[in-house]
């Protein structure tokens, strides 16, 4: 993906529909969306997620897409503590069927072909690696290489 195609992707808003939220562990939430039109991304890329259902200041945030395109769902995951930002508060109030806007996907943080690899992640920084590992598992069923993940979080 080139810089120009990234700009084009950001300038082309795409509608997504909220499906459900999953509390993965204490304070860690995954939000799942369906695309209203085909959205193409490479596992590891990110996008801007824009809130439309309520008026807040700074209604847009960047999130890595934590799902593989082969899962047919757009997933973002984040930590939401006891005093969330207005953006995250609005996300927690979102109802199934509510529309949001995605700008992107963009970025060069992906691997073209599975090969022996070492990922290093901390905390919620796991999200693009979750997408890449899932993608390799689904796409390259006969993958014989080794993926190492070094991961640490505060709990
Ligand atoms: C490429 C990319 C990918 C990303 N992927 C993810 C992801 O997968 N998951 C994820 O959770 N995040 C991701 N982020 C970060 C995400 O965009 C948000 O910045 C992050 O989730 C914090 O958002 P927030 O709404 O909680 O806090 P924000 O409102 O954005 O504030 C950021 C921090 O500043 C502090 N702050 C804000 N205002 C003030 C103030 N006035 N005084 C003092 N402190 C203040 C807040 O407490 C908070 O800790 C990504 C960012 C980028 C650039």
Write the layout of secondary structure elements.
Blueprint (H helix, E strand, L loop, with lengths): L2 H9 L2 E12 L2 E8 L10 E5 L9 E5 L9 E6 L6 H7 L6 E8 L10 E6 L4 H13 L7 E6 L3
Parallel strand pairs: 7-8
Antiparallel strand pairs: 1-2, 1-6, 2-5, 3-4, 3-6
The site of flavin-adenine dinucleotide has 14 residues, from strand 4, strand 5 and helix 2.
Structural features, described:
With 155 residues, this protein is of the alpha+beta class. The protein has one domain (3-152): Beta Barrel (Elongation Factor Tu (Ef-tu), domain 3). It is built from three helices and eight strands; from the N terminus they run αβββββαββαβ. The strands form two sheets. The chain has a six-stranded antiparallel sheet. Strands 7-8 form a two-stranded parallel ribbon. β1 and β2 form a beta hairpin. The model has no long low-confidence stretch (mean pLDDT 94). The structure holds flavin-adenine dinucleotide. Residues 46, 61-64, 76-79, 85, 87-88, 124, 127 line the site of flavin-adenine dinucleotide.
List the keywords.
155 residues; alpha+beta; Elongation Factor Tu (Ef-tu), domain 3; two-stranded parallel sheet; 3 helices; binds flavin-adenine dinucleotide
